[in-house]
Specification:
Aspartate Aminotransferase, domain 2, 3-stranded antiparallel beta sheet, lyase, lyase activity, EC 4.1.2.48
Length: 340
Amino acid sequence: MKFIDLRSDTVTQPTEAMRKAMFEAEVGDDVYGDDPTVNQLEELSAKITGKEAALFVPSGTFGNQLALFTHCQRGNEVILGEDCHIIMHEVGASSVIAGVQLRPVRTDKGQLDPKETESKIRGVDIHFPETGLICVENAYSNGRVIPLENMKEIYNIANAHNIPVHLDGARLFNAATYLNVQAYEITKYCDSVMFALSKGLCAPVGSVLAGSKEFIDKARKKRKLMGGGLRQAGILASAGLVALNDMIENLKQDHENALYLGKELSTIPGVKVRLDDIHISMVFFTIDTALDDSIIVNEMLQRGIKINPTEDGEWRFVVHYWISRDNVDYIVNSLKSILS
């Protein structure tokens, strides 16, 4: 049975072009720098993000944690949004790998308040840890895109205090699509950036970390320490090249389908959709019903639709390349039937 999978954009399958590229990929030992396909992916990634160099890594969490590990000294403090992905969904890895302390800042739907952020930067005191990094995220885990002006304000504050900024740009190209800008117009407000190839862009594996040449040189050695030296990784990187060259333009359709899904869901009695927060391919909503999450999840599965249960009382449906407008209509009608 072929399922409609709304759990995440991480569930995307590689396209036929990706499968062909993987089959035909020219490979070498990437730890030695000998894999031409990985090298090509890293060069293209650096160009797209306006950075000097880039590094292919196994996952987004790996890329974010490698950034913290490379930017910071053990015992440093990292300032970041209290509801960002690094805090909420990366298994506390920052304490294990980089050995850093996180100092969360309240956000306004993902936006860091510049004044509050600056107030969290540590002064010189024998009792204080040193602020080693500020992390921002765009697009945010709540589906919203952060305005460039906010990113610029945070970056200027960081520069004034000589603190680097890392961007969790797992869905960087969704943000760029929403803002109608090139990716480098977002990444100019950070010193390093991680972006995912394996979400809406459909590559089966991988993310990229980009930054200055000096930063990436350090990160390459730390990637080896973390077990990320993948040897003949060109088989995977080839799909990433297809993702960057061919798949970014499809994100606009995903966003349009997500907005359509949100509007249609909002017509169902008892369903309240955060329509103003549909910036990319994510739809968040609540359901006023006596039905348990497990019942709704199982009933949708019986109709060939995979969904996750609620998190903090909210449902999240994620649209992606493999979900069509006809699929959206079927999804809405299926949920309406279950709730009625």
